[in-house]
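Notebook, bench 3.
Goal today: get a predicted structure for uroporphyrinogen-III C-methyltransferase from Staphylococcus shinii so we can plan the truncation constructs. The sequence was checked against the plasmid map this morning, with no discrepancies at the termini. Length recorded as 318 residues. Pasting the sequence as submitted so the record is complete.
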Amino acid sequence: MHLVESGKVYLVGAGPGDPTLLTRKAEQLIRCADIILYDRLVNPFILQLAKPESEIIDVGKRPYQKHIQQSEINEQIISAARRHSCVVRLKGGDPAIFGRVQEEAVALSVQGIPFEIVPGITSASAAAAKMGIGLTARNVAKAITFTTASHCKGQVEALDLHSLMHGDTLAIYMGIKRLPQIVKQIYQETKIDFPIAIFYNVSTYHEQMISGHLTTIIKQVEAQDLEMTPGIIIIGKVMDMANEMFRNIDNTKRKNYLISGKRSLAIEKAFELYAAGHYCLIKIDSQQPYHKSQFKLYEQQEKDLEFDEHIFMDNYQS
C-alpha cells in the first residue's frame, strides 16, 4: 500500500475538566497543535491554550440524541493528519477509558499515520480525590472496577458485580440515565445496601455530588433534576470512608470570571483562579488573528455564560 506523507496524531486526555489537572504533556501538545478535534466535555478554556491561528473542530457526541458517528470522526482525524504536522484529538478524561481510543488508533494504523496516546486523569480518580478517599484502601477495597452502562449500539448489559460483592469498588461511567435500573439490579443481586455517590461535572465550576445508599439515592437524585448532566457513579465500602467535609460541596463561593488583556497574562491568571476553584474564560480579542472556529466558539461562550466579574489584566494588580 502506498502511504501518503502525513503529520502525527496525538490522542490526548484532557482530564475531567479542571485545567490544573491537565498533564504537562497534554498542555504542551495543545499549545503546539496545528488543529484540534475535541469532544463536547472539554473545558473551553483548555482550548484557549491553543495557538490563536489553530483550527478547532467539535466532534463531540451528544448522549441520547443523533450525533456524529465514530467512522466520521476517524475520517476527520485522518484528513487532518494529511494537512497538518501536529494533530491533537482531545478527549475528556483518559482517552483509553471508555474513550474509544482503540478504534481511532486502529484507523490511523491502517493508514500508516503515526500516533501517540497521551493519558489523562479519569473522572473516577478526580471524584475520589474530591471526596478525600482512595478508590482502593487497605483492608477495605483491594481493587477497583471501571465499567459502563452504555454499550455498543445502545445495548444494555447486566453489570458484573463479583468484585463489588467481595468488598471492592465499582465505578460506572455513562450510567446516569439508567441509574434506577443499575441500583435495582445491584440491590436485588447482592441484598446489600451499598453506599453510593454520584459526582456530576466533577472538577468543574458546576460540580455537584449526591451521596447516600442504594435504597435512598433515587429519591435524592430526583429532587435535583440532574438526569441529563454527565456524571460518574461510585459504589462500594470505601464510600463509608469519605471525609465528611467533602460530602456536601459548597459552590456558593465560586465565581465565573471573564479575563481580558495580554493573552499570556490572562492564561496565567486563569490557571491561578482555576486552582482556587473558580471558572474562567479569556475574552477573545477581535483584533487578533484568531481562527474563525475559535472566534465562533469563544464568542458564543461569552454570550451563553453569566460572569460574576470581568478582570482586565492590563490594570490588574496581584
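The two ends are 59 Å apart (CA to CA). The chain has three domains: 1-121, 123-247, 252-318.
Flagging this for group meeting.
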